[in-house]
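Marked as duplicate of an earlier ticket. Keeping the data here for the record.
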Amino acid sequence: MNKKVLVILATCAMAISSVGFMAGCSKKNTLPTVATPLVTEQETQPAIKLLAQTEAEPQVESAVMQNPVMNFTGNYFNNRTTLLVEADGSENVKLTIVLSEDSKTKTVLNADAKFNPLTSSIAYCNGTKKEIALDKDGAAVSEKELYTNGTGVIVFVNSEATWNDENEKIENMTFRFGVPEEIKSGYEVTTQNTKTVKSAKKTAKTTKKVAKKAVKKAVKKTTGSNNSVYGKSIYAAKNLRFIVNISKNNKANVVIEHTPLDTDMNFKYNISEGWYLSGKYDPKTGIISYSNCNRMHYVKSLTYDQSRCFYLNGKGEIKISGNTLTWNDRTEHYADGIHFSKV
């Protein structure tokens, strides 16, 4: 055992002496040395950049919290069938479809779902159909649940919505976006109660009286004046009002306000529309030409506030002749043949 220890110690001593010998040779430059190449800071930059690109974590953009259905919310109509699309939180949607309504009953289909932005559609499988009894003032008295498993899909394209429903056997029913009075001329109201008829007649008489007063006021205002179109002027007819502002350098700014008629929908929602445009006024012809008209639609209530742009860059002409204004809307031909009086 002691011999083995001695052998190990001898071996270690020899190794140490060899190291000392090599160190001594190194000091005397008896062994060649290999120079380490110097690397400049500029040469290391590409490697550092590559390493940074390799090790850097991918950048994740912050999520947009706005509900993607916001571009399609609002009221849609197909004759007497109405569709209301509302955003619910950051991703859910509430659908309310009024299938039929008269003075005594109303049939409504409600559904909750998520909007698919890839297909611009809403697919639901929890449609609840109810029959609601109404009193003489149109308030709900009672309701009867008909089913709760309605299945269907609504697809949006531009300002239209196409509806398919298995339970109701609906195939490709097309709704268009708009306000209630836009579709009243498209169908005949066959079930109006006596109160509604009287109210409509009273409103018509009031409108005629207001129109006559407006014309008399315009005549008195312009009598004896130079009838200058420069500055701010207002022209009105029916439920449209033009606010025209023309500067001395013939630049014109026009706001067209559209006030909907009194309807049950407007009792619940404050619905309005507007056209906004600017252009050059030609004093020789009395015409304001424009190509930048922006049409907006607004729906508001105590708990709901939504605006929607119908289109941008609408084209047309507005002609002012004395106390009369006419509007040639090339995009929609909305008010063709209507003469608006200065008020």
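See parent ticket for discussion. Residues 68-177 form one domain.
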